Amino acid sequence: MVIKLYMSSLSGSTEIKKKQSKIKDLLESLKIEFEEIDISDHRNEKQKEFMRNNSKGKKEGETPIAPQLFNDDKYLGDYDAFLDATENEQIYEFFQLQSPKKDKKSEEVITNTSVEDEIKSED
């Protein structure tokens, strides 16, 4: 599964540029692999159409604008949905990824069980 960030490097809006930067910064800080797709690049016209056809605009009938987020081809949401997930500490759920914290807990359970088994076998 690959997180895809649909963004625009040619946006004249500083607000959009900041939103895109915040998403990229968080993904990089959490070491979540992602693909950046620049919809302003004419070579990405098919990806731009895909984003527009599979995203939601702010209002009914409105054309979606960058940034938009997908997990492979599954739509996750726009910046506002991303921000809500961040504020609610549900970023891994938003991206539909397993949290590294859950992995560590699983490892701890396995390790603790192994230690208990070793103690019982010594008795």
Automatic annotation (TrEMBL):
Residues 43-67, 99-123 are annotated as: Disordered. PROSITE patterns: GLUTAREDOXIN_2. Pfam families: SH3BGR. Residues 43-62 have a biased composition (Basic and acidic residues). It comes from the Eukaryota. InterPro entries: Glut_rich_SH3-bd, SH3BGR, Thioredoxin-like_sf. One of its GO terms (cellular component) is cytoplasm. Belongs to the SH3BGR family. This is SH3 domain-binding glutamic acid-rich-like protein isoform X5. It comes from Lingula anatina (Brachiopod). The gene is LOC106168659.
